[in-house]
Please model this.
Amino acid sequence: MNKFMVWRALARGVILEAIRRKDLWVVAILGFIIVCSAGALGFFGMSGLESFAKDLATTVLGGFSTILAIVTTGRLLPEETRNRTLYPLVARPISRFDLLFGKLLGGIAVSWLSFLMLCLMTGAALAMFGVRFELIMLQYVLLKMLGLVVVCSVTLMLSTVMTPSAAITMSFVILFGSAMLSRGLLMAYSTASPSVAPFFQIVNASLPQVSLFDIGGRAANANWGLVPLWVVATLAIYMACYSAAMLAISWAKFRRQAL
Amino acid sequence: MLRYLPLSVFALAVASGFMTTTVEREVHTKVIDSGINIHETHASASLLGQFRTSISSWLWLRTDLYLHNGVEMRPLTDQEVDQGRQAATSADDFLREGLTVIPGAERDFRGVFGDIERSTHAYKNMEGHTHNSPLRAMPLYRLMTWIEPTFEEGWRTGGAVLGMGADAGRADQAIAFLTEGLTANPQSLMILNQLGFTWAVRKRDFPRAIVYFERARSTAKQAKNLSEPDKESLLDVYRWLTLLYRETDQPDKQAAIAAEGLKVFPGDVVLMGKAAGIHEDHGHETHGHQQRP
Model:
């Protein structure tokens, strides 16, 4: 069995498990809430409120998809250990890295699936109010999907070094708090001496910059152009590098872990 | 008998649900204006973004964001003020409104990360910036006051936005909106002040305006403690009343109100001007040179 088939089989297992556990029902319920909320919004009149509708849509999409990605990925490995289904897996001729990578791919696939389902429902709600489709919305979806890869990789790394509850909690703190910390550093730097810049740079660079993948602010408001291609390419490279680093840390911990 | 137990329990639940309306006012407390304004006055509040407990407050902050087409602004920190940094000025009213939350390249230590953020977020140099029409946010004012009827600032600003422009029909809409707000907040100086302003300036109906300003004045007299926004409204009320009594040719009332206003707000230059104007007018009257606007 080549590596690609191993990873695909493991990822497929994660998707099937998410369907079996009815995780995607949560997405459907959330989508239903979005549509109902949009209906309530329509009651107050949508004329001139397109920006708010799009803003609300991107905020809800960003929040829900990140939560789903964290919850899905955070329990992948701990549940395998708890249910003792990890043993037959490691008994097969696959390396622990393959196991981790396959699980990560599965987590990413479930997160993307959930996100795209939410996008469809939100898109339908926006279309109901005659909000015009713009190309930047497609770019928003693409960049958000890249951002979800970072979210999944950080959560998987934390789940290898902490208990499941701690890993999920820390993921929420890090992934939702990194933008705030980054902003705090910027404000502090505005009055700090230039000599401390390297310290600020190191702290900032070590944080997962997931907020950079969220172009909801541009997509929601009028007259903002598409994000330049070099930015999309840089973010894709950043996603690959940061996720690889997280996977490497996870593997370094998991390969020595006694089962 | 047990057959009717679930029905009885359900009836009890419904009855207790009706009872909750009696405690709603106590539980659902008034939105504190000083809390709402924290983003405009405290730079550190920008750190928390728009994470607030009240949906109305969140909507309130969003209206400001849409005014700037999505560009997030923050006030200067104390250190920045000490260093002599200047906030960006708006082209509409030349007011200094603060700095962008995402800094310009010259003040950003992040290098390429900063460049990416400026490309992926709503960012532009805000020096001499213009604003979107506040009317675009009108449904938000309706929504926030529907969710939180005690949110006086929402009623006041929504009324002001609706009343903008020369269209007389819009003034009627503003009055209807503010009257609805007054029904929910009968003691609100802010809403009474805005209603008086709308009747005076938009409808040019001075006697009706005086009714609302006088109601605000008597409400303030009965109040034990006035918040800062209420004090600001009361000052406006005294200023408007002196002006309107002058416009309606009631110099005695104008003098009394100006004197009363100066007791509450000693040293207010506008009220002092109005008071001085009365003496001046009387002087002119004595010499037979009545000059009234």
